[in-house]
Amino acid sequence: xxxxxxxxxxxxxxxxxxxxxxxxxxxxxxxxxxxxxxxxxxxxxxxxxxxxxxxxxxxxxxxxxxxxxxxxxxxxxxxxxxxxxxxxxxxxxxxxxxxxxxxxxxxxxxxxxxxxxxxxxxxxxxxxxxxxxxxxxxxxxxxxxxxxxxxxxxxxxxxxxxxxxxxxxxxxxxxxxxxxxxxxxxxxxxxxxxxxxxxxxxxxxxxxxxxxxxxxxxxxxxxxxxxxxxxxxxxxxxxxxxxxxxxxxxxxxxxxxxxxxxxxxxxxxxxxxxxxxxxxxxxxxxxxxxxxxxxxxxxxxxxxxxxxxxxxxxxxxxxxxxxxxxxxxxxxxxxxxxxxxxxxxxxxxxxxxxxxxxxxxxxxxxxxxxxxxxxxxxxxxxxxxxxxxxxxxxxxxxxxxxxxxxxxxxxxxxxxxxxxxxxxxxxxxxxxxxxxxxxxxxxxxxxxxxxxxxxxxxxxxxxxxxxxxxxx
Amino acid sequence: xxxxxxxxxxxxxxxxxxxxxxxxxxxxxxxxxxxxxxxxxxxxxxxxxxxxxxxxxxxxxxxxxxxxxxxxxxxxxxxxxxxxxxxxxxxxxxxxxxxxxxxxxxxxxxxxxxxxxxxxxxxxxxxxxxxxxxxxxxxxxxxxxxxxxxxxxxxxxxxxxxxxxxxxxxxxxxxxxxxxxxxxxxxxxxxxxxxxxxxxxxxxxxxxxxxxxxxxxxxxxxxxxxxxxxxxxxxxxxxxxxxxxxxxxxxxxxxxxxxxxxxxxxxxxxxxxxxxxxxxxxxxxxxxxxxxxxxxxxxxxxxxxxxxxxxxxxxxxxxxxxxxxxxxxxxxxxxxxxxxxxxxxxxxxxxxxxxxxxxxxxxxxxxxxxxxxxxxxxxxxxxxxxxxxxxxxxxxxxxxxxxxxxxxxxxxxxxxxxxxxxxxxxxxxxxxxxxxxxxxxxxxxxxxxx
Lengths: 472, 450
Hints:
The complex is a heterodimer.
Chain A: E1 14-16, H1 41-49, E2 56-60, H2 63-67, E3 87-88, H3 93-98, H4 101-115, E4 120-124, H5 126-131, H6 135-146, E5 150-153, H7 162-176, E6 188-194, H8 205-210, E7 214-220, H9 225-229, E8 236-239, H10 242-256, E9 260-262, H11 268-282, H12 285-313, E10 317-322, H13 325-337, E11 341-347, H14 352-361, E12 367-370, H15 374-383, E13 388-391, H16 393-401, E14 405-408, H17 419-434, H18 448-460
Parallel strand pairs in A: 2-3, 2-4, 4-5, 6-7, 6-8, 8-9, 10-11, 10-13, 11-12, 13-14
Antiparallel strand pairs in A: 1-12
Helix pairs in contact in A: 1-7, 4-6, 7-10, 11-12, 12-17, 13-14
Chain B: E1 8-9, H1 16-24, E2 30-35, H2 38-52, E3 59-60, H3 65-70, H4 73-87, E4 91-96, H5 98-103, H6 107-117, E5 125-129, H7 138-153, E6 163-167, H8 173-186, E7 190-193, H9 218-223, E8 229-233, H10 242-250, E9 253-257, H11 263-277, H12 283-303, E10 307-312, H13 314-326, E11 330-336, H14 341-350, E12 355-357, H15 362-369, E13 376-379, H16 384-389, E14 394-396, H17 414-449
Parallel strand pairs in B: 2-3, 2-4, 4-5, 6-7, 6-8, 8-9, 10-11, 10-13, 11-12, 13-14
């Protein structure tokens, strides 16, 4: 029995745990016309690199690609804010016909002179791939002339999905890492796959520092170019968003011998385990003890509030649709903590391993979906009787139109969700949305008059007698 | 006046396909489909969802490397099939992107093939417009899409005794609702197009449909060829569009007016309507006009000589600038991201001595603003960085507005909308003055306590 049937060719991308159907189809091109929620290669590269606060991010392409990515993400900075400006070569018809290399080179010089960035990332867009501009050589020459790293990011939109963009971004980062000398004072880590959305880092990083661990670089939330250049000096990489950064962690392991561990900072248990993972790695008794102290202190601080939230949402049903799998998995645990049941879980770009992992942790009857679209999502939300959807802005209004509560867990969110405080914020948001009085309001007005006098009489009244609608 | 630098820093415009969505979403039962890579549709969905706070479905042909090399015909046909099966649209509006244009797909030919191969798709009207991002801005995308609609669909039959009212530039659903109300009150037979009043600001109902209800009916689009006249509202400085096509092709007389914001431009719209239909303006609008005048008198001292920067879409900027000069305000910078020289001429005429900028980005506007003591900015939310830097209040109008509520409900047109705009401007100025006073007093206190 198919779970939802809308588009031919999508059957294998949707399954129900417990109904034997073989591995979920994934990591394939999106179906034309199906309104995939995915973006493009450029988008993947842009989300990974853009949080580097003091770098200049230049989009080589027509204006749209720069317009739609200008400062719409919630990554914050504790200092520089050059990353919040949008730079584009704004290619026009003539550039498309005659090639954009000269304009790109001129823009690089002009912008370096005006903004003095420590590094420039140059993103290629669809059209650059078609007309064949040689991004690498333009960047190499500019780097020589300007005396700063000018890093090509090969992110032509059509060359795959977001995953390819992550890789392009990681390649650019890999080129930057190791270009400045640094010796950490003591035990040290990098935090990979953490983008400082809504200030998340400031609720996570201090715990590591309390444990006596130096954070050399965060990639790329609130990062500075200088820190990234020194990242090779750290003893350990903690990888949060595995989809975007495992590739870089592996590269660093190969090149610098830096081991990596997967962690998550979302949810009380995950956050605690992240601290323990670091402490176990360094195997210093004092550090372990410190970690347990921190965990105990923070847990006792937040548990009463979380318990109260749990009481208000327990037994309700949640649907999860995320960009990557790491966050989706963390969310399953968080909902377990809140006593909620996950009835749908999906991602835009999960891998076969990701989906196996997901199938392992969810209950029988949960629908698992790859690269969903609005029609499938709305049918599933009804079928699975979801009370809440956790996703991004595109899905928010779909949920609202269906009178379903919503929690924004994407780059657009403005509320911190990581660390112990973040879990309180998350629980609160879930609770206030599910328990809002707006869902109880009558959709249809009860009309005394229409039942009393009937529609015929209304029609006979002159238009002056009918009150005007209230205008905004 | 033209862009000084090569790079665009903080753009004041969007790309062509964006404009097409706002036209296609104003046609009943219409589903937009971008022929290009997946990202374009997702980015614009995200951008418009932020603005309208509505679900925005835009299909994509999701071109990949293979499509880019061998052409996108297969993807386009598959996309059409899936949109028809999934959404059951009456109309599909195809807009091309940079990618499709550069690989050189012949979209009309592919659509003809598709129709021939899929007899079941006979009942679906498919139109296509050419909107490569590198060619021009979202405003031009809007204009060519509207023109494309009538070019493909308008058919001569019997005279219908109606007038065509074309919404010539991007306004809010509330603005379109106002226009409908105005025409209804006038008792005119009309075809209003595109009509986003319901589709991009839908009421919450027990059932929601995949393609939002509302929009200009297809039969009306076809019938535009048979109307008595066309009035393009918000088409004063645009290149020839749908109205001009209907005039040239079917002899339908065409008048274009600015957006009705402020006294003069509202009077001008009302005069045009009176002329077109021979009926006087309904009484209630006389009273609203009087209320606008009354509000203008009430506010004239507060607003006197206030130095402003106005930026954004051409028609919106021109009309707001004119309103400001009626109020005794002093527009200092009047800017648009569009490369539109008719705009430049008009702006200089409306506000002599102001700095007029076309093809502008925010870095250029900032440079001009730095020595002009600007007291108020009016335009899309994208100017917020600038407003913050110069510590100037920003009145958000137009698309995009991502960081405040109510973009769909913002009424700017008509005497009524002008009153709303005027009150908002006054209050935003007063808020900012009060904040300043508060800060000054606090600083004084702090200095005293040291």
